[in-house]
Specification:
This protein is 37% helix and 17% strand. With 266 residues, it is of the alpha/beta class. Strands 1, 2, 4, 5, 6, 9, 10 and 11 form an 8-stranded mixed sheet that branches. The chain has a 3-stranded parallel sheet with strand order 3-8-7. Helix 3 links the parallel strand 4 and strand 5. The chain is globular, with a radius of gyration of 17 Å.
C-alpha cells in the first residue's frame, strides 16, 4: 500500500496525457458566464487516491484551476438551488451521492446526471467506514453503489458506471483503499473544503472559501449540496471565481470522456 501511494506523483504525469476536452457555456448562458474550462479524464489506474488533505497527491490541475464537488445529496431544496447556480454559470461539477438519498429522491438524482454533472458515490448511509469490520464496510460501499446506480439507471451493474468514491468523513483505511484500488475505483479526498457542516452566514462562508482557495491556488473543493447556506452562497462564489481568474475543471471517468458533450469555449 505504501509503495502504491508513493508512486501516485509519477502516475499523475501519465494522466496528463489522457484526452482533454474544452467546454464553454452552452446555449442560453449569459455572455459573462464562468463556464467550464476543460474536462479532465480521470483514470483510476493512474490516480487511485487524490486530494492533498488526505493523500500525497491530487489531480493534475494547473494554477487557478478548481474542481467543484458536492457531498451527501441529493436533497430537495438545496440541491435544486445548487443545480440552478451551476446551470446559470455553465459550470459542471461532481456530486458524491448517498445511496439512501438517491433512493428517496431518484428524480432529483437523475436530474443531476441529466444536467451533465458527474455522479460519484459516498456510501449508502454515511457511516465512518474505518470504524467498522472490513466486511461490513465493503457491504455498505456496495449498497451505496447499487442504490445510486438503480436510482440513476433503473438497475445496478457489477461495477459502478462512474468509478469515483469519497469516504464519509474521509474515514479511509489502508485495507479499504487497497480494495478500491484493485477494483479500479478512484478515491476522491479534497484539497480544501468549505466547512459548511458548521452553521454560518453565506457571506462568511464565501469569505472563508475564497481565502482558502487563494491560499491553495488550485484544487478539489468540497461542499455539501444538502446545506442551504451553501446553496445560498454558490451564485456569489461562481461570480467571484470568474472575477479572480479561476477556471473550473470537470472531472469525468476516463472511459466516459469521449461521450462528454462538446460546447464552444467562452
Amino acid at each position: 500500500m505504501t509503495r502504491r501511494i508513493s508512486t501516485i506523483t509519477g502516475c499523475l504525469l501519465a494522466a496528463l496525457a489522457l484526452p482533454l476536452w474544452t467546454y464553454a457555456a452552452a446555449a442560453g448562458c449569459h455572455a459573462g458566464a464562468l463556464g467550464t474550462a476543460r474536462v479532465l479524464a480521470v483514470d483510476p489506474a493512474a490516480t487511485p487516491a487524490v486530494g492533498r488533505k488526505h493523500f500525497p497527491a491530487t489531480l493534475p490541475l494547473a494554477p487557478r484551476e478548481v474542481v467543484l464537488t458536492f457531498d451527501d445529496g441529493p436533497w430537495p431544496g438545496p440541491t435544486e438551488r445548487v443545480l440552478a447556480a451551476l446551470r446559470d454559470e455553465c459550470v459542471r461539477a461532481s456530486f458524491f451521492m448517498l445511496g439512501r438519498n438517491a433512493t428517496a429522491h431518484a428524480g432529483l438524482a437523475r436530474r443531476v446526471l441529466a444536467e451533465g454533472h458527474t455522479v460519484g458515490h459516498h456510501s449508502h448511509s454515511h457511516p465512518l467506514l474505518n470504524r467498522m469490520p472490513v466486511e461490513r464496510a465493503i457491504a455498505e460501499v456496495e449498497r451505496g453503489f447499487a442504490s445510486v446506480e438503480t436510482a440513476l439507471y433503473g438497475a445496478a451493474g457489477a461495477e459502478p458506471r462512474t468509478p469515483f468514491f469519497r469516504f464519509p468523513g474521509f474515514a479511509s483505511s489502508p485495507v479499504l483503499l487497497d480494495i478500491l484500488a484493485r477494483r479500479r475505483i478512484a478515491v476522491f479526498g479534497a484539497d480544501l473544503w468549505a466547512s459548511d457542516w458548521n452553521p454560518m452566514p453565506p457571506a462568511r462562508q464565501l469569505e472563508q472559501v475564497l481565502g482558502r482557495l487563494d491560499a491553495a491556488g488550485s484544487g478539489i473543493v468540497l461542499f455539501h449540496d444538502t446545506q442551504p447556506q451553501t446553496a445560498a452562497m454558490l451564485p456569489a462564489l461562481l461570480r467571484e471565481l470568474k472575477t479572480r481568474g479561476y477556471r473550473v475543471v470537470h472531472a469525468v471517468p476516463a472511459a466516459a470522456a469521449g461521450a462528454v458533450k462538446h460546447v464552444r469555449q467562452r
